[in-house]
Amino acid sequence: MDILRAKTIDLKNFGKPLSSRQTSNSSLNEAEALAENHNPASFPRRLVFELTNACNLRCKACARNTVSFKPTYFDPEWMKFFDPALPYVEEVTLMGWGEPTVHPHFTDFLSWAAKNDLRKYFCTNGLKLDHLFKNIFDNNCEIIAVSLDGAKAETNNQIRRGSDFNKITRTLKTITAEKTRLNISWPWINFVFTAMKSNLNEFPQMIDLAADLNLNEVKLVYFTAFDDTMLDESLYNETSWVSDVFNQAMEKSEKSGVSLKLPHLQKEDPAGDSPHKKCYTAWRDFFLGSDGFVRPCMSTSKKFFHINDASDFITAWQSQQFVEHRKSVNSFSTTPECENCYQSSFANWNKKESFIQTDFEFAPEWS
What we know:
two-stranded antiparallel sheet, 29% helix, 12 strands, globular
């Protein structure tokens, strides 16, 4: 079974077929991104909405522990702004610094996306999936990523403080049973596992758990240390150990049929000595934070402008801020916010700075 290492430009084309306009736009967008056309004629392929920076967990490894978060919530009125792009966009992704399902209008976002024929993808800690069971199927939710940091309740619940491993896995079992009953392939569900010293050896068992629950994939992301209190959890310079665990996981993946997504091993990342892999998010994605600021992606503190200050979507998409960012992001000399990227697909895992971010600003200030 092929192991996916980094999805730097592609989106997971899963679910209903794209319309002719979506297909044409996505093809043009990818060509313009690869050519690094700074003022693309295409619309983005994906809208990424950070519904909130609030969360119902207190995860041990979360960078949120290093700063003060003033809770902000995505204003549903902002969705009207995107009307001109909706016939062309493929997907809406609901994720960011908080737990999207705690937004009081979360199900309205699913309904809005379904009404506009957008692929729906959200990343969740899983605690509220039981309450969303009907909405998931009513709105044809295509992709769900569930964060779980252990194959056993004790491990996961100790790292993801406030989580409930047993409840989450029971709910997932119910969802996949309903898929079987309805004879449908969606939602496509994966586990996202944040690997650190205290849970790394348990990772191969995540494949067994996913197989037992009839999930589609297990994805591993490296833990990034944002303050000194968690430095001892970093897997920086632990390549031999990591490689051994990856090999065990690959064997289980081959036997079970559960797909596997792994980052590159340290010293084997094709980014070489570059600050990060080639980044295409400024072409592929339009990211709007829960504070209303448009940013290049969720993993940078750089802010372009507030959505209320933009006259319309096309003007925003072709704004000078976007153009200048597209010019600089892969030049590796004029984009300080991106030089130490830790985003799972674009980070250069040969670099210490991808694993350890104790000296850098990792996220926006929520004023």
